[in-house]
Amino acid sequence: MSHDPLEARWLQALLPARDGACHPNPLPYAANLIKRWSEPQRKYHTLDHLTAVLDRVDVLEEYAADPALVRLAAWFHDAVYLPERSTNEERSARLAERALPEAGVPAEKATEVARLVRLTVTHDPADDDPNGQVLCDADLAILASPPDAYAAYAAAVRKEYGFVPDDAFRQGRAAVLRHLLTLPRLFRTPYGQREWEERARANLRAELTELTGPTGPGE
């Protein structure tokens, strides 16, 4: 499978952030990240997810203060991913802090990318954080998928956590869904609120009902 389109998208993210630096060769960094996103333990957090997040950043880029840094954060936000670990975002942020300066990105920009990656732990950007709002909205946009695509997403998440017994998975997943439903807003950009909020909440409520039953806990 050729990754040329993804390599082009890596250049779209990296080159504007390098402030005109010509070295080093950016493509080995793309190859390393693509390899990471292709690891066998991934069922949802795959190259398809990376591409989808980048697509959504393209849709939302008018709201970002620095779209190139948001795109770099999309590349790194699940670059380290082991389903059984709770430190993936932190380890991904540290990877960005190491790799981006080496790849020619100024230190303050690498720091901003790492900050954005860490935001994907909570998906709760501040009201004055347009970069964070765009990244978090792009990452959560899957929640607003049509029913068939949402069902495929939920099934892929279950496969990633195949080592978790069914009862424990249902309880844990239900807790995640309830948390999301308690947020005042899932999406922070005007586009996300307008186009994705209502459908995402309907999908979350439907999945929660499927997991717990119509009279299950918290219903």
Primary descriptors:
0% strand, mainly alpha, 219 residues, single chain, disordered C terminus
Question: Strands, helices and their partners?
Answer:
Elements: H1 4-17, H2 27-37, H3 47-60, H4 67-76, H5 88-102, H6 107-119, H7 130-140, H8 147-160, H9 166-182, H10 190-195, H11 197-212
Helix pairs in contact: 1-2, 1-4, 3-4, 3-7, 4-6, 4-7, 5-6, 9-11
Walk me through what this model shows.
It is a single chain. The chain is mainly α and 219 residues long. The chain is built from eleven helices and no strands. Helix 1 crosses helix 4, helix 3 runs antiparallel to helix 4 and helix 3 packs across helix 7. The C terminus is likely disordered.
What's the story with the biggest beta sheet? none
Q: Please compute the radius of gyration using only Cα atoms.
A: 18 Å
Question: β content, as a range?
Answer: under 5%
What series of H and E elements makes up the topology?
Answer: HHHHHHHHHHH
The helix content, as a percent range, equals 55-70%
Overall pLDDT score: 94
Shape assignment: globular
Distance linking N and C termini: 45 Å
Structural class: mainly alpha
Low-confidence stretches: 215-219
How many β-strand stretches?
0
Number of helices: 11
